[in-house]
Write a structure and sequence with these properties.
alpha/beta; methyltransferase; 43% helix; binds S-adenosyl-L-homocysteine; seven-stranded mixed beta sheet; binds magnesium ion; 20% strand
């Protein structure tokens, strides 16, 4: 089924180019599929891998750990040379992610903080080279001021689910109970697009991603 963001045959073709994962990532993907955990889509995982190879970040902040899939993917792409802080509020997810981080040997690189992103963010002081926003689609606009404060001067913010099944781009697709989330996601995209201090690119990949950097 198409994601509502891009054409199905294009998606399938791009996914076929990326190919199958193996090892740890494959195991986690299988678990996510069986248990309906919304981990990043293949294209987005591949994009994060690419970005990390370009940027070579020392410090990464992630909002939304779920089972630890994207954290582990990013840790693998940086050859365990980056430090990842990841935030998750759902206790069941936290427990599973902790198990995975331990089982696969990522305890040194991945620091999981249990709590609500908004609360945890206001207590963070470090600066990050990459911030990956993938939690609470209806709150990206509220997370943004904190993320900007925590972003290194030449840091990059990547947001997942930015087009949310296409609903963000078209009122015709919006289902009633998602109206608030959609409105707030639009607000987020306007905030990062209208501000002349930033450059933002929205890409119809996966469920839609946006990438934001500071202008020089
Ligand atoms: N980044 C993960 C997927 C995250 S799914 C991956 O690709 O592997 C989104 C997660 O965000 C869910 O587990 C959900 O419990 C969590 N979440 C949603 N709102 C949150 C909030 N306000 N604070 C912390 N976690 C939140
Ligand atoms: Mg997502």
């Amino acid at each position: 089924m198409s994601s509502g963001v891009s054409l199905e045959y294009i998606e399938n073709y791009i996914k076929s180019l990326i190919g199958e994962s193996s090892g740890i990532l494959k195991e986690l993907e299988d678990y996510a599929k069986e248990n309906s955990v919304p981990i990043v889509q293949k294209e987005v995982g591949n994009f994060l891998d690419l970005l990390i190879n370009i940027k070579k970040p020392k410090k990464i902040l992630e909002l939304g750990t779920a089972i630890g899939y994207s954290s582990i993917l990013m840790s693998l792409s940086s050859k365990n040379d980056s430090n990842i802080t990841t935030i998750e509020r759902n206790t069941d997810m936290v427990n599973i992610a902790r198990q995975n981080i331990e089982k696969y040997g990522f305890k040194k690189n991945i620091n999981l903080i249990e709590g609500d992103c908004l609360e945890v963010l206001s207590n963070l002081r470090d600066k990050y080279d990459i911030i990956f926003i993938d939690a609470g689609k209806g709150h990206y606009n509220h997370f943004l001021p904190h993320c900007l404060r925590l972003l290194e001067d030449n840091g990059i913010i990547v947001s997942d689910n930015a087009l949310f099944r296409g609903m963000v781009a078209s009122d015709k697709l919006v289902v009633r109970r998602k109206i608030t989330i959609v409105k707030r996601m639009r607000k987020y995209l306007e905030m990062v697009s209208d501000n002349k201090k930033f450059i933002t690119s929205v890409i119809p990949m996966g469920d839609g991603i946006s990438i934001t950097v500071r202008r020089d």
